[in-house]
Amino acid sequence: MDLSNKVVIIMGASSGIGAATSELLAKDNATLVLGARRIDRLNDIKNQFPDATIDTHEVDVTNFDQVKAVVDDTVAKYGRIDVIYNNAGIMPTAPLVEGRRDEWKQMLDINIMGVLNGIAAVLPIMVKQQSGHVITTDSVAGHVVGPDAAVYSGTKFAVRAIMDGLRMEQAENNIKTTIISPGSTGTELFNSINDADQKKFAEDFFKNINGLQPAQVASAVEYAIGTADNMSVSEVIVRPTRQS
Ligand code: NDP
Fold first, then answer.
1. Cα-only R_g, the chain
2. Pairing relationship of beta strands 7-11 and 31-36 according to DSSP bridges
């Protein structure tokens, strides 16, 4: 796909779905601005594509000032932002009875506030442009609550509500919104699970259903970005075929 006319910010680009999307869009010649905490991993992606235009930023999405600095730098360099992809997330699942309040707070901060920080930083610019596209990685867990995943699901239900509200508020400003809801995908996400039983459950589940590869989810993001100006893909759910 030719995306050479698109300036795309990807938050949470250092591994998994975000990294695969960065690689795919680099091949599509998009101008890329990549953010995550692990800047070395972002620079590894940049170095794979010496002919592409790729900026990398060390950023924690829970810190609005850092997110805004990336957005401001992008506008200063390229004059506009076509897409922000809010992809950063963690999934430390555990039964509620374990009372892992620190993990709950981290999930709320990264999975919800991280998305809101991205939205808050780009929206004034996109409204001014009267164009733009906000994409967020949600989950099948944003549709169905799984056992021992109540808080993670809660964050993903919230994000879906926020994105649908954004869609309704910003249609008149010609701003597209896309919710990407993957099923089980082989990434480093399972490393964020600290409960040993839950980690094994997630890994076994992925294996048993022949889970998705990150590049397969990236192709859904590419599809949403590549649509005509008058067509907005509101949500894409991509499941492993064997995930019920
Ligand atoms: P990974 O763990 O491979 O990727 C997570 C990404 O989020 C990394 O780039 C990580 O970067 C970034 N991130 C986490 N915390 C922060 C933070 N505070 N600030 C900036 N970046 C952060 O997992 P996935 O690729 O699977 O996850 C991507 C998204 O997909 C998440 O929102 C996840 O909930 C969602 N998802 C994943 C599914 C799966 O089965 N894998 C299924 C459904 C949805 P760094 O650590 O360098 O900061």
1. 17
2. parallel
Domains of the chain plus CATH, in order, are 7-238 (3.40.50.720)
CA atoms within 13 Å, Cβ hemisphere of 79: 2
Nearest CA among 214, 240, 238 for reference residue 224: 238
Ligand 1 centroid vs 178 CA: distance in angstroms?
A: 17
| pTM more than 0.80 | yes
Nearest to 161 by CA among 209, 101, 210, 119: 119
From the candidates 78, 85, 152, 223, give the one annotated as an active-site residue.
Answer: 152
| Average pLDDT of span 140-168 | 97
Hey, what are 13's tokens? 């680009």
Q: What is the phi-psi region of residue 239: left when phi exceeds 0, alpha when psi lies from -120 to 50, beta otherwise?
A: beta
Catalytic: 152? yes
Per-residue pLDDT of 190-200, as tens digits, reads 999 999 999 99
